[in-house]
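Key result, reporting period 2: structure in, sequence out.
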């Protein structure tokens, strides 16, 4: 019997950077909670962004934010993983040399930006609906960071997979998060580790867990659930970690699987 459902957001549940989730999914969450099934929203986004997205049911959810660096439920921080200050300084200085990409620096619930690029600000503040703070020099702010990201559209995959991820993977958790982002976090950070924390807290095992994902940063989550689903648009390396393949966000694949399993709303 399924006791825990966890889903990624961008590329799995909705199109990347969507500000809202479709109404059927909100109603499905209500249905799952009425059956006492725990629902986790697991994303590379910050807590503020995903909590606004699911505002109507936010108090019925556990949020795994920043790829697992920040776990929050009903306004209470369950877990925060900070990046070592030495790595923050070293990585920030290197990323600043890549002038054709934008950067975002995540605290637990706030995005620090050094940029004045209105298009990028629009993506974070208006599309993702992040809580944003503008700073001249994030290093001078002396704040704890849980994630550092570099962004480029239409894709940053070549830079990420060929240079940044291999270069940093021995020091930080470095992953692709969609086509547009490379995320850097403490080595311990993983959506799978975060989901395992929740499984252990509620005494739920993998056979009682259902997970949906689409990208490399979802692999850890897929690996701790017996009923694991990759959307049909996921890279092959992600599909290899999933027991099932489901339709993409375009066809509301997550909702369709849940409706088949638990009944339509």
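The corresponding designed sequence is given below.
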């Amino acid at each position: 019997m399924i006791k825990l459902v966890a889903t990624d957001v961008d590329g799995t549940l909705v199109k990347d950077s969507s500000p809202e989730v479709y109404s059927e999914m909100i109603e499905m969450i209500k249905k799952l909670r009425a059956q006492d099934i725990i629902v986790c929203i697991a994303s590379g986004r910050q807590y503020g962004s995903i909590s606004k997205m699911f505002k109507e049911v936010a108090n019925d959810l556990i949020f795994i934010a920043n790829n697992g660096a920040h776990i929050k439920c009903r306004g209470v921080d369950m877990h925060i993983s900070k990046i070592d200050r030495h790595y923050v300084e070293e990585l920030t200085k290197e990323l600043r040399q890549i002038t054709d990409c934008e950067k975002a620096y995540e605290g637990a619930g706030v995005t620090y930006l050094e940029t004045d690029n209105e298009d990028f600000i629009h993506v974070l503040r208006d599309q993702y609906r992040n809580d944003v703070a503008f700073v001249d020099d994030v290093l001078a702010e002396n704040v704890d960071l849980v994630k550092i990201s570099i962004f480029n559209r239409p894709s940053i995959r070549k830079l990420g997979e060929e240079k940044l991820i291999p270069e940093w993977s021995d020091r930080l958790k470095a992953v692709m998060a969609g086509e547009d982002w490379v995320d850097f976090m403490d080595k311990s950070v993983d959506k799978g580790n975060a989901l395992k924390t929740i499984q252990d807290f509620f005494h739920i095992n993998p056979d009682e867990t259902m997970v949906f994902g689409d990208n490399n940063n979802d692999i850890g989550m897929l690996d701790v659930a017996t009923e694991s689903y990759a959307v049909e648009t996921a890279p092959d390396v992600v599909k290899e970690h999933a027991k099932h393949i489901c339709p993409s966000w375009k066809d509301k694949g997550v909702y369709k699987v849940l409706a088949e399993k638990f009944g339509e709303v």
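The chain has a mean pLDDT of 96. The radius of gyration is 17 Å. This case is discussed further under Risks and Mitigation.
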